[in-house]
């Protein structure tokens, strides 16, 4: 089992940047694909992006492509979500999630593909 903790959320003005971190404990982090999701008030949780176990592959939702970047440091058990050119519509609670160990997530944008979830971190973008 792996425990995930997100950090780095906060309040930022539109056009600004934030970097979120997802730290893992419990098992070797490199075993897991990691996804980022977000949930805005009154809306369903939605896919943001995904990174493979090695970090060699990434995928993003169209809404964040070109603005957000995911990278990982397996030696430090962390995955980061760099968010640039933030918009008010990016306001949400952001969650990281890990897929099953040693398994490539087939449908990166589907929540059920992920087995472990963090508690989330709030990101608020003011206009």
Task: Please give a structural write-up.
Strand 7 and strand 8 form a beta hairpin. It is globular and about 40 Å long. By secondary structure, the protein is mostly beta strands. Strands 2, 4, 5, 6, 9, 10 and 11 form a seven-stranded mixed beta sheet that branches. A four-stranded antiparallel beta sheet has the order 1-3-8-7, with no helix packed on it. Helices cover 0% and strands 46% of the residues. The model has no long low-confidence stretch (mean pLDDT 95). It contains no helices and eleven strands.
Number-wise, the strands total 11
Helical residues, percent: under 10%
Oligomer: single chain
* Low-pLDDT residue spans: none
Order of helices and strands: EEEEEEEEEEE
User: Main beta sheet: strand number and arrangement?
Assistant: 7 strands, mixed
Strand content: over 45%
What global shape is seen? globular
Give the structure's gist in a few sentences:
It contains no helices and 11 strands. The chain has 127 residues and is mainly beta.
Topology:
Layout: E1 3-7, E2 10-13, E3 18-25, E4 34-39, E5 46-51, E6 58-60, E7 68-73, E8 78-83, E9 92-98, E10 116-117, E11 121-126
Q: Which features would summarize this protein structure in a list?
A:
four-stranded antiparallel beta sheet; seven-stranded mixed beta sheet; single chain; 127 residues; mainly beta
């Amino acid at each position: 089992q792996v425990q995930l903790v997100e950090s780095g959320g906060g309040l930022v003005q539109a056009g600004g940047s934030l970097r979120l971190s997802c730290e893992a404990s419990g098992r070797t982090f490199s075993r897991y694909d990691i996804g980022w999701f977000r949930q805005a008030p009154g809306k369903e949780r939605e896919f943001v992006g995904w990174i493979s176990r090695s970090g060699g592959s990434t995928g993003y939702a169209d809404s964040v492509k070109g603005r957000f970047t995911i990278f990982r440091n397996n030696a430090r058990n962390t995955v980061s979500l760099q968010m640039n050119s933030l918009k008010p519509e990016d306001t949400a609670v952001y969650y990281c999630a890990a897929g099953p160990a040693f398994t490539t997530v087939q449908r990166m944008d589907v929540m059920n593909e992920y087995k472990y979830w963090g508690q989330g971190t709030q990101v608020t973008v003011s206009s």
